[in-house]
Amino acid sequence: MSFEIGHAIRPNLGMIALLVAASAVAAWPAGAHAKGGRIGVIGTTIGQVTAAPPPVVPAVTFSTDPGNIHGFDAVGFIQDATVSNARCPAISDKSQWGGTLNLNGLKITVPCNLTLQMPAATFTWADMFDKSKFTAIGAAGILKLNSSGSGSGTSGSPFPSTEILVTGNIVNGEYIAGLLLVSQQSLNTSTGYITAIDYANGALIISGSPQGSATSYVQINDPTARFSIGKSPDSRFSVDDQNPTIHASTGYPMCIPRVAPPAIDAKCPQRNRPLATHCRNFREVGFVLPAGRDLAPPAPNQIYCSSFVMTAANGANDPATGPNPYFQAPFEVGDFITFSGTLMRGQGPNGTDFVSAHTISANVGIFTEPNTVPSYIAIEKLAVGPDAPLTFNGLPQEPADRFIGEAMVTDIKSIVDFYLMDADPVTGAIVNRWITPVAMTGGVGAVGSNGAIIDGGITTQFVGPQPGRVRIRANKATPGILLSPTRYVRAVARSLCDPANINGKAL
Q1: Is 463 left (phi over 0), alpha (psi -120 to 50) or beta?
Q2: pTM (2 decimals)?
């Protein structure tokens, strides 16, 4: 079994929490250990920190004969739904209730306390629905959706589709959900150039060419006003404001100023997109990439830098006039973007349809000063295959023993580590399990906060062909390290958090 996720980022001022958003059963070919970074160890290994063993996996117990249990995947549009505590009468908190789901004619049980994944946010089953769309029916405590389809908005006349992907088990003929992914339409993605910006409504006007006429109106779904003035026709399909989903291709968070230029938005300052007359590159910083490459110079007639290295800052209140890495960078006319969101009917300018975006990635390369903070990480792909000695009816099952991590980081000299977040089943306390020791990545080595040399980590963002790209593919992971995979995974630059100082131990 393998678990994969897509984009999710946050500034690396702490650790990055990423939700596993899909699962599939797959066999993965065996191979050699992947090497992320330089081969070998730098320096003397004194007090070397090693990865601790994963938690013990309890023996598998079944509620019925295993021959009556089968996995299933189903995807389609929600036809009907109920919210109830019929399967968990002791739970009084309605937000944690489960219920039922009708999908492609199948009635699927949704367990209580189940967390489901929206495009860029997480909800419980009950909280996903607009309670104004429910009416009490039948037995006390049961809520039923009183319209065909759950809808994708709370005002106007939204398009009625709500797509859901369900992975679960069929137990004695009953379909029981284990993982839910919900969107209006998961493949609703487009690209184009920004030809104008509607600052008052937090929206970008998009066309197929820099000088083309407007073809799409894209408003950031931003209920907390993190990336814009703050518009949200439906907060369930909003951005992730903790792991920013509005970002440059390098992971740097981006924004739409809350006021139109020449006025200045202090949280989205124009100085964070310098004019193309001077776009600072790595050679100017004093770092020569081993591959001999550098950032491309601006194109003729380009107004703003589309790739540059920021100067170091002394803090969020740095009085410098140049770019400040503690603040977001504004979108500019001419930027090429990829966007995903919910298509809203008749609620745009002059009653037109528009896209309420939960994810925007700009083709802009913003890097931070090497070996300084803050730095930012954007996860491009993550897959975890558990190394579990599973048997079924006495027959050994082939696990997909692998770990794949691909990301972009703004500090090309940083060392990046990944962790599985083990949660205590009773208290919920998190222990971070380090999964990128030297046995997984092939080395590098750096001094940790306790003075010990800590091997492992990933440095391909400096030595690889593409500046900023973090990449590890362990097709045959270190035995035992991926046992008992977790729902959440963390990625972090070691400059702020090293394996010797995670919860007091290398976990």
Answers
A1: alpha
A2: 0.81
